[in-house]
TrEMBL record:
GO terms for cellular component: 90S preribosome; nucleolus. It comes from Acrasis kona. InterPro entries: Kri1. It comes from the Eukaryota. Residues 21-34 have a biased composition (Acidic residues). GO terms for biological process: endonucleolytic cleavage in ITS1 to separate SSU-rRNA from 5.8S rRNA and LSU-rRNA from tricistronic rRNA transcript (SSU-rRNA, 5.8S rRNA, LSU-rRNA). Residues 21-68 are annotated as: Disordered. This is Protein KRI1 homolog. Residues 35-46, 54-68 have a biased composition (Basic and acidic residues).
Length: 215
């Protein structure tokens, strides 16, 4: 039986007891099979009810003092709990602690609390499992330490490096590539122009030589 069902059963049982005690003609309470509501009462009526309730508790409680001087209380007529069922114990605590005055948890709230408790338990188990795995992985390294068993394992090897190999190669920009192509083109045109001039000069010299020979 769930907590909600136990509370509803306790409310119905309490309403039945109230109806038997105060009678159907008492207009202090109005109820049905599943729910009872209390009418607004005056301050004097509330104080009287509180006095009657405290008197009821004193009649059913036995106060004792143990060796440490701490005060303990137990119900005299329910001291022997061997014959009580879980429903009887719940009803006893419900009446003595006046649980009907406390806000009742909804079924959704109960489910949420149960889910939160399960999540916390799962998280704790997962953390424990991870810690155990870490310990298991570190244990062989701590006990064996294979690196020092290898030849030259106690020495740290150093490898020479060149600073140029560690520098990232600088790539030319688009502007630099454009200027480079333009300079190459200009140089090519200049070379072609010089070659053309040399050819013309050579032809001119040859022509002059032929004219001189013909004279």
């Amino acid at each position: 039986m769930t907590e909600m069902e136990l509370q509803e059963q306790a409310k119905r049982e309490f309403q039945r007891v109230v109806d038997e005690v105060v009678g159907d003609d008492d207009d202090d309470y109005e109820g049905d099979d599943d729910l009872f509501t209390r009418k607004e009462k005056t301050k004097e009526e509330l104080e009287k009810e509180e006095e009657e309730y405290q008197s009821f508790r004193k009649q059913h409680e036995l106060n004792e003092t143990d060796k440490l001087g701490k005060k303990t209380a137990s119900l005299t007529h329910l001291d022997q709990e061997a014959g009580l069922t879980e429903e009887d114990k719940f009803l006893r605590d419900y009446l003595m602690n006046r649980e009907w005055k406390k806000p009742t948890k909804s079924q959704d709230e109960i489910f949420i609390e149960e889910d939160m408790a399960k999540d916390e338990l799962n998280d704790e188990l997962e953390i424990q499992s991870q810690e155990q795995n870490i310990e298991n992985n570190l244990l062989p390294d701590a006990t064996n330490n294979y690196r020092f068993k290898e030849q030259g394992g106690s020495h740290i090897k150093l490898y020479p490096t060149s600073y140029k190999s560690t520098i990232r190669e600088k790539k030319p920009t688009k502007r630099e590539l454009y200027n480079q192509r333009r300079n190459e083109r200009y140089k090519q045109l200049l070379d072609d122009s010089k070659k053309e001039q040399r050819d013309k000069s050579l032809q001119l010299k040859r022509k002059l030589i032929r004219q001189v020979l013909e004279l």
